[in-house]
Amino acid sequence: MILHVDMDAFYVSVERRQNSDLIGKPVCVGALPEGGKARGVVMAASYEARQLGIRSGMPISIAYRKAPDAIYIEPNYDLYGDVSESVMNVLQEFADVLEHVSIDEAFLDVTKRTGGDYEKAVQLAGEIKRTVKEREGLTCSIGIAPNKSAAKIASDMNKPDALTVVPPDGVAEFLAPLPVSKISGVGAKTEALLVSVGIQTIGDLAKYPGKDLQKMLGKNAVWLWGIARGLEEAPVEERPDPKSISVERTFDRDVTDWTT
Asked: What is the pTM assigned to this prediction?
């Protein structure tokens, strides 16, 4: 049994913990807009900012045009790293095995401590959420599922501060209506390719002939097809602390031709 824990708007939430005046306001962490002329991107946006059309990875100049009155903050990498380590220490207390995926998310295998009982898993997830809130002053969203891919998708379903459960016999049903872009690793190019042959949902992907999918996507087809059918069984594995923060890099000019 797998839990995927994803911190809610992590960078913004940490900044709000430092400065409560930011609570309830549209906040963007990333490059400063400098009157809308600055280069760089939005690293994180509060849910209020997202309602104004701002997204992570968006050029800061576009974000500023959409929300000139939002609050823009330069990232504090050391602070985010320290808080992440504290959060992961909390999660470790509840896991049989913890896989630290990134600065703000982790997989927890809780099969042994729950005995495979989903009611116990829900209780455990609730305890995790309460403990993270009490100790760190932050909220998280948790997905519970029999495998990692479904748990990750579930944790993103009802953010923020959500708890979504996918029972073992309901994985395919849960995934079927969702767009294929919900699968981690399916980017814009892969999504466009899939849509071009009529695959718009994960359910469509599950029904598509495996051999045809392999011709189109190569070795990645097996991985995608397995996820779509709820068959993915990748184990939760302890890894060295990634200490990674997504760093967005920009160039002095727009790059449209990678050969130059």
From this structure: 0.86
